[in-house]
Fold this sequence. Notes:
membrane; 14 helices
Amino acid sequence: MLSPIxxxxxxxxxxxxxxxxxxLVILINRSGTMVIPxxxxxxxxxxxxxxxxxxxxxxxxxxxxxxxxxLGGKLTDKYGFYDVQVGALLLxxxxxxxxxxxxTFPTLAAFTFILSLCNEAFRPANSTAIAYHSSPENKTxxxxxxxxxxxxxxxVGGAIGGFLASINYHLLFWVDxxxxxxxxxxLLKLLPRSGFTKTTKVVSGENIPTxxxxxxxxxxxxxxxxxxxxxxxxxxxxxxxxYKTEWHYSERFIGGLMALNGILxxxxxxxxxxxxxxxxxxxxxxxxxxxxxxxxxxxxxxxxPVVWSGIVVLVVITVGEMMSMPFMNAFWxxxxxxxxxxxxxxxxxxxWSMAQILAxxxxxxxxxxxxxxxxxxxLASMCLISACGFTVLYRYIDKS
Length: 400
């Protein structure tokens, strides 16, 4: 039996230096992610918008993200992942700072859309870059390392964001913008623009889908992923408002919960991936993770409004996340080749962007007519439907 040190060494060994550099860039970028987790509170408490308006703002962010993911995939195929990453980070940084000066609903909505479009264009380019700088044997762990950096950044950003929000909400926009720009500078420094600007080339071979948009299995997978992602995004959109208004947690404690999510993932996800990868079909792990997430949301109707309840819910959601999201990446990446990877990456990013629209928009409407209690029941049911859908998909693939 391997010791804990050996387990961690095994989990992190064999990854390319460029994969580590890309993860460092993401870590810097995500360490400044503070605006979105506190946007509902900012809109309702600082700008005095209604909860429905706050939901619309986050829904508009998701709409821009869908457009940005599609655009980012197209630009990556045409110009290469490097230029798209740098451009999206620099422009996104400036737009975050500008967003903090908007005070009315129309202007905040307009700049939110533009920002999210630019911000999300980064994702397909980054996914393509990770695949380029990894080998077939360690692609899943390379993506998991990137996820680790994202979540570790979330832990830092959430903790600092909660502290800054208790002082002045406008500081969130400045920090978010500056870390975007800093990440672009690090990318330029650590991975100078060289011969890997374009990654697309036609690859011939059997059983390689020509287009992500014609891959029926992948489209079914995306549909189930949207259901799950719509539920998961409540953690960063509506759930903080629930903690603030119903369970009366402070902004600092809410930020601490966001930090705990990232810390748990940083400590355990890579080791879990290293030990589970290849032993079962990725869909089997995804099914378990989605079901666990549903249980977490249902528990918000059953647990008392005390500190330990928030911690328990967060831990359970994080377990569900670690069992599902890494293997979602594993599922889609094996269906790609170099000539169509941008399409698959864009569609997967669009899936999460669509969930960003549905999560706050649908969530706020359910709260308006049925309060938070109805929301948690609906989310638990959606997770059950998603898990059943993934089960059907797994059985179909297993028989074919």
